[in-house]
Amino acid sequence: MSDPQNGWVNPLRSDIDKRLPRIAGPSGMVIFGVTGDLARKKLLPAIYDLANRGLLPAGFTLIGFGRREWSKEEFTEYVRAAVEEGARTKFHQSVWERLAEGMNFAQGNFDDDEAFDKLAAMLAEMDAHRGTGGNWGFYLSIPPNSFADVCHQLERTGMAKATEESWRRVIIEKPFGQDEESAKELNNIVNAVFPEESVFRIDHYLGKETVQNILALRFANQLFDPLWTSQYIEQVQITMAEDIGLGGRAGYYDGIGAARDVIQNHLLQLLALIAMDEPVSFSPDQLRMEKVKVLRATHPVYPLDETTARGQYTAGWQGSEKVVGLREEEGFDPQSNTETYAALTLEVQNRRWAGVPFYLRSGKRLGRRVTEIALIFKNAPHLPFDASDISALGNNAVVIRVQPDEGVLMRFGSKVPGTEMEVRDVNMDFSYSEAFTEESPEAYERLILDALLAESSLFPTNEEVELSWQILDPILDFWAEDGRPDEYKAGTWGPESGDQMLARNGHAWRRP
Ligand code: BG6
């Protein structure tokens, strides 16, 4: 399925990775929003990690664009601090020096023609002196309301234009809009300048090893997928719990909330990978076609007042730390109805999944940080035991632990040693850290490398983004009418309404 001779290497085949290291060709990257949190904590460290792993080309060039009056040296110092603080791999002076040689800073605002003219001249100069070959990625780590300005400038100055020999790509960060309509507008803005095959939308969950492993688990084995249907599975629970609060992100989060922040993208992508049919191959088109099919079949379950829940955290304890409630967080409007916990019930209306509830939940300041997908099986149709023998037997489950303690757990019943036939739940646990010596790369390492290589499998298409909003929009509209979210104490597992949502179906959240 890979065709290395013609330059296409299947990015999901790690055996091929080993034979042919996937090294980016001559190229450079311009980061807009380089002084932001994301660039400092994730992008810059990931670029260093790639360089350190030998996966960037020798002349790789990194240009920061921002408002600050920085010299090239000041920018380089800033990157160095970010790398020392956030890189996953060891700091090597020689790697750093080589990377730093290719750094530069362009100062200006997004509506400043002169600044973009200078940037275009800088790119041309870099092409001439550093062998970047005219290949540039533009990373928009900026709020979506600035996309139009930047795309317009990239078009006006000709920077967006690829040639026969060189490529130009845009890499964009969420939020991809606030609803389906605004997502379409954003897609139109971007697609008017960059053709869809040059647009790389980041959903960093797809860059995580454990998320890619969903494909391996399902399609490299005979053990699981035959059972992956409504015939055997009773319910699917997807949980993304965080213990952190808003911590300085009130400006971004207020008005966005948990559903728009992570369910529209990360959790629906997890759902798509779990529920989709087997793709013909892992080529970008085939993989994304299967995801689109399953997203198209996914809908909220009604009535929404019973099948959804949302909440805001109040003051409480996070471990041994006393924490404030959402409304006391700095910069947060105390009157805001923005939710920090969201739970939804969805169904996938196709032959494989009809009747199986997919419960999705995410929240800040919950009991602990954990992301997992639990497939919970129906009871065996007949249990030839006395009721007392199986009183401690629950449902079988396959649990994919996305993070932390990455791995897969299977829960099933087993006989308790002794003279009685007593059956109790036990866990069989696969853990990445025990099974492999290799450490998993950070999601952004994988995704930046893939964007430089034009490997688009792990990037959602505009269609996936719009379909995800279609699923969410009716729920967001309902919440907008419904008034205030419920409350939950920081450090707990969310509002009672989140538990009731499942209890109505005789189900309960797994305690991760
Ligand atoms: C981001 C959200 O997409 O994901 C954040 O905007 C959230 O609110 C973060 O904290 C969580 O990412 P991870 O990789 O730590 O689970």
Automatic annotation (TrEMBL):
It catalyses: D-glucose 6-phosphate + NADP(+) = 6-phospho-D-glucono-1,5-lactone + NADPH + H(+). The active site is at H266 (proton acceptor). It is an enzyme of class 1 (oxidoreductase). NADP(+) binds at R67, K174. It comes from the Bacteria. Pfam families: G6PD_C, G6PD_N. Belongs to the glucose-6-phosphate dehydrogenase family. This is Glucose-6-phosphate 1-dehydrogenase.
